[in-house]
Amino acid sequence: MELILTGTGTSQGVPVIGCKCEVCTSSNPRDRRFRSAAIFRDRASGWAAAIDCGPDFRQQMLGIEQDKLEHILMTHEHMDHVAGIDDVRAYNFTAGVTMNIWATERVQNRLKQQFSYAFHHEPYPGAPRINLRDLPKSEFSLNGIAVIPLPVWHGSWPVHGFRVGDVAYITDVNGIDNETLQKLTGLKFLVLGVLHHEPHHSHYHLDKGIEVAKSIGAEMTYFTHISHRMGLEAEMNANLPDGIQLAHDGLRIPVTL
Ligand SMILES: [Zn+2]
Ligand SMILES: [Zn+2]
Ligand SMILES: [Zn+2]
């Protein structure tokens, strides 16, 4: 099993259209970031659960040759995490599966509004076929693999991260309650959303992210959901504390169950 970070950028992605800053014009491929998303998968068994399907979903799935997919775990309803929903049609058509999207009631209601054509009682031929599933409040088995939902705060919104084995993925976040912290013990790898250097109303900024990463104490923490305002990947990673790095698109993290 592994967790692949298929995107590590904030909502606009990096580079930002029209921006000429040193990050957006960098020639280092690690300074190019799709919108944040990830996938837990086990190539041997074919087990896979994507996390979010933002606007870059199609390119992300092509990039890792994810030819079959039946499950998407939704962190929350912001467009940078759901805008690729129409592209689940590829899995509907080629693999013949109805996509299971696991989400809280609030997120489900939002999806029904934003993508009403897909949930119409008589959808037009070719509309995405989606099966909305209630995200359980605590650990559940997804085809035999234990998935632990991690409730966290994203501004005033309750949103979710996910843990499988010794790896946890928490993207948009600026607060973690004690109850969830207790679900983050014994981690080998933590993926944590950290936006840039300045305090923000709904994301951790760098100093706070470092503090939180140290207190959770995973052996290795990778920051994701990164803004172009974070700075160059190479310069940042040369100066972060031991055990903390900026992630990059395509990063593969081994998962021990
Ligand atoms: Zn986001
Ligand atoms: Zn820029
Ligand atoms: Zn968000």
TrEMBL record:
Q: Does the keyword Hydrolase apply?
A: yes
* Pfam families from the UniProt entry: Lactamase_B_2
- What keyword terms does UniProt attach to this protein? Hydrolase
Name the CDD domains for this protein. metallo-hydrolase-like_MBL-fold (cd16279)
Q: GO molecular function: any one? A: hydrolase activity
Q: Which InterPro entries match?
A: Metallo-B-lactamas (IPR001279), RibonucZ/Hydroxyglut_hydro (IPR036866)
The keyword Hydrolase appears for this protein? yes
Q: Which residues form the Metallo-beta-lactamase domain?
A: 51-226
Its protein name is: MBL fold metallo-hydrolase
Organism in which the protein naturally occurs: Phaeocystidibacter luteus
